[in-house]
Specification:
- The chain folds into two domains: about 270 residues, Crotonobetainyl-coa:carnitine coa-transferase, domain 1 (Rossmann fold); about 80 residues, formyl-coa transferase, domain 3 (2-Layer Sandwich).
- Helices cover about 40% and strands about 10% of the residues.
- The mean pLDDT is about 95.
- A hairpin with a 3-residue loop joins strand 10 and strand 11.
- The strands form three sheets. It has a six-stranded parallel beta sheet.
- With about 400 residues, the protein is of the alpha/beta class.
Amino acid sequence: MTDDIPVLGDIRILDLTEDVSGPFCTKLLAGLGAEVVKVEQPGYGDVSRRLPPFLGGQSGPDVSGMFLYLNTAKKGITLDYETEEGASVLRQLAQGFDILVESCPPGHMDSLGIGYESLSESNPGLIYTAITPFGQWGPYRDYKGSDIIAQAIGALMCVIGLPGREPLKVGGNPLLCTTGMAAFSATMIALHVRDLEGYGQFVDISEMETTAVAQIHTSIHYQFGRAPERRPSNLTRAKDGWVSPGLETGVHEATWPRVCELLGVPELVDDPRFNTAPARRENQQELLKVVGEWAAARPKEEIYHTLQGLRSIAGYVATVEDLLKSGQLANREFFQAIDHPDVGKLLYPGPLFRLEGDSWHSGRAPHIGEHNADVYGGALGYTGEQLETLQQKGII
């Protein structure tokens, strides 16, 4: 592979997804150089265009941080494929694309005559990825979902929070992003199969199943007699935040005396509560009190580097500011500056993986319908007059 040839430079993708899971999947495909054409409803656009945060507190379709991040490096067109004429246009478009990704309720695209069975008749090599809360069949298939629903019903929330208190949701949209990664991986596998065997296929992605896999330890451990449970945090306060000392499991017995010397408690070297890893696990909260007295006067990053130097599995709770200034991420050039005419130049998280050469492609998110003339004119040969007519009819 050379630096100037994108990994997916010859692949075209129709992105009919909204919210987080689907756009995150297609964002990764666009990052590998595929031509991703995002299809949005005329005048309305993706629902994430109306989700905060908005730069400067000013709402609008082109200033949502959520949308701008999830749709980098994509083209944007509008099309009301819910109408008969719009569905006909989509059928024409799909003939020239390798992959279609959608996040509609199960059976909805089939009811419009633009589901996988219909589109694959004229494009047998089409890979059709459908992302839904619960999959294409089963008693829950028609239920609605969200990140908190995925976390709850996928058995993640049952292990988050303090014992005796209500379960907690992990912040942000981690399970929807995880579902997007699953959809990306499955789509890439289907593309590989097509390259080898010559046929496309339908890819069924379930947010609930993705969560169940992410929480596989709960279902496996349960069958081995270890029911999942919430436990107290192993965090303690530092001078400027929180740290996880990692001393309960991450320190070799031969290193324990050095830890005691560092903490200023040499008398604990032979203390049976702490002188073995099993004992430290059993008495974790007592150990945290000891460490807490030492840590309270020290910065969290100093504690982190000091304990890591003793081969402890230590960490610290980074703030967003810490993350943006991280020396590790800066060294790897993880955050990438992308300019946008409406919000200016901002830093965006980079790729989830590294391939040989400069294989990751970034670019700004599109305005609503920004590439209508480019895509419809190039793919279908529509003239400016035809596009104007479709626009007046509300089709694009």
